[in-house]
Amino acid sequence: MRADSVPHALDSRRGAAFLGICAGTPNAAAPLEICDAHYETAAERGFWYCRKTAGEPFRAGELLGTVEDETGAAVQALYAPFDGVVLYNTHALGAAPGLPLMAYGRPCAEPGGDKLPR
């Protein structure tokens, strides 16, 4: 198994455990209410490489992913504009202008607290 596929395999196993299909510990994380969602699309043709997985928190300024051309040069880089959490990534490697890449959002904060998962 490739190292970059491990998070996806773990999510699949947790999902199967939640459904009772296999033994294991289901993901017991509490759901987050998202108050500010953003949907990113490809600006250039290339290959999408996400750096964060669904449910993973990030901080403002972190690299969330890149679109690279055939030579491996980045033609688009997505940086987090705020602290938040990844909602989903597209699983397609190929990217074309206008096609979805990922969605992320800012969790609603409770008074006096930060709702971002650690």
- Quick check: average pLDDT? 83
What fraction, in percent, of the residue positions are helical?
10-25%
| Total E-strand runs | 8
Order of helices and strands: HEEEEEEEE
Figure out the total of helices. Answer: 1
Structure class: mainly beta
Q: Strand fraction band?
A: 35-45%
Low-confidence segments: 1-9
What global shape is seen? globular
Instruction: Please give the order of strands in the largest beta sheet.
Output: 1-8-6-3
Tell me the quaternary state. Answer: single chain
Largest sheet: 4 strands, antiparallel
Radius of gyration: 16 Å
| C-alpha termini separation | 27 Å
Give a brief description.
The chain has 118 residues and is mostly beta strands.
Fold and architecture overview:
It contains one helix and eight strands, in the order H-E-E-E-E-E-E-E-E. The longest helix has 13 residues, at 6-18. The protein has 118 residues and is mainly beta.
What is the topology?
Blueprint: H1 6-18, E1 34-41, E2 46-50, E3 57-58, E4 63-68, E5 74-79, E6 84-89, E7 94-95, E8 100-107
Antiparallel strand pairs: 1-8, 2-4, 2-7, 3-6, 4-5, 6-8
Which keywords apply here?
118 residues; mainly beta; four-stranded antiparallel beta sheet; 1 helix; 8 strands; disordered N terminus
